[in-house]
């Protein structure tokens, strides 16, 4: 194997390793963002229910004894 071929092979190996590392970090970031999004959705639902309950008018009818 010539020096040029060895250098090309080394370059390919390093680029492949770098791409794999970047892809792994990308997957990790996506997983973290999905977890954060899920938490945010749950929190939004909880707050929406609380807001709906707070804004829902309470109608109370008191009967007058006749």
Automatic annotation (TrEMBL):
Coiled-coil boundaries: 23-50
Keyword hit for Coiled coil: yes
Domain of life: Eukaryota
Keywords from the UniProt entry: Coiled coil
Protein name listed in UniProt: Uncharacterized protein
């Amino acid at each position: 194997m010539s020096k040029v071929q060895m250098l090309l092979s080394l370059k390919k190996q390093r680029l492949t390793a770098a791409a794999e590392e970047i892809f792994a970090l990308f997957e990790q970031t996506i997983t973290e963002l999905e977890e954060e999004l899920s938490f945010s959705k749950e929190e939004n639902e909880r707050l929406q229910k609380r807001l709906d309950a707070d804004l829902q008018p309470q109608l109370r009818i008191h009967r007058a004894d006749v």
